[in-house]
């Protein structure tokens, strides 16, 4: 389907999406929560592709937080199954990534992920590593605090080994030890579903991010909503502490 893509004067380089509201979307329809996650996964693909077509170079989608393990076991299992299905749809997904030259990168803790999922993640990252036009980060088993803790540990190890002195620890160095090292920080973070919080999303990277909130539930999120975000972004006056 040919989409009408508007032109924008200023585009964010990086957009973060907190994909929230799947459960409520399903409940409203008398469905299981997992049906909402399934629909949400389709929205992720549709919105990711549209953002790439508009010219967004970096996107981060929050798929599963370090706190989401607290959900009922059946829901966690359904989510893990969904992630595997997405990654397994090999040829279709590879073609999709190829057309738009999209590189997939998973950010988050890997230690406690199911082994079969981890293998699929590594495979998808390896296969798409050759693309450099668009970077799609999927935050899975991700927590902003866990990410910073991980960076602190890595840096401490280097200090302990004598590779680094304490004076050399700068903001830039810390930034080089977080999962999105080398990428621009998100210019704008989008949270649908009527919640006004970050829920441990991109804690380090969001220091100067703009926010965009809406009552739309993630499965209902459309390309038109992306246009609204981009239009709104034109009007933001980002000062970064200046005047
Ligand atoms: C977000 O939707 C998806 C994940 C956290 C995995 P929710 O499942 O949180 O949906 P609500 O907030 O209950 O509606
Ligand atoms: C944030 O949504 C995590 C993801 C979207 C993956 P939650 O639904 O888990 O956040 P809270 O619990 O409402 O803060
Ligand atoms: Mg939620």
Description:
The protein has 243 residues and is an alpha/beta fold. The chain is 43% helix and 15% strand. It is built from 8 helices and 6 strands, in the order E-H-H-E-H-H-E-H-E-H-H-E-E-H. It has helices at residues 22-28, 33-54, 73-88, 90-100, 115-128, 144-160, 171-175, 223-235, and strands spanning 14-18, 58-65, 102-107, 134-142, 188-191, 210-213. A 6-stranded parallel β-sheet has the order 3-4-2-1-5-6, with helices on both faces. Strand 3 (102-107), helix 5 and strand 4 (134-142) form a beta-alpha-beta unit. Helix 1 packs across helix 2 (33-54), helix 2 (33-54) runs parallel beside helix 3 (73-88) and helix 3 (73-88) runs parallel beside helix 5 (115-128). The radius of gyration is 18 Å and the shape is globular. The termini are far apart. The model has no long low-confidence stretch (mean pLDDT 96). It binds 3-methylbut-3-enyl trihydrogen diphosphate (2 copies) and magnesium ion. One 3-methylbut-3-enyl trihydrogen diphosphate binds at residues 18-20, 62-65, 68, 195, 197, 199.
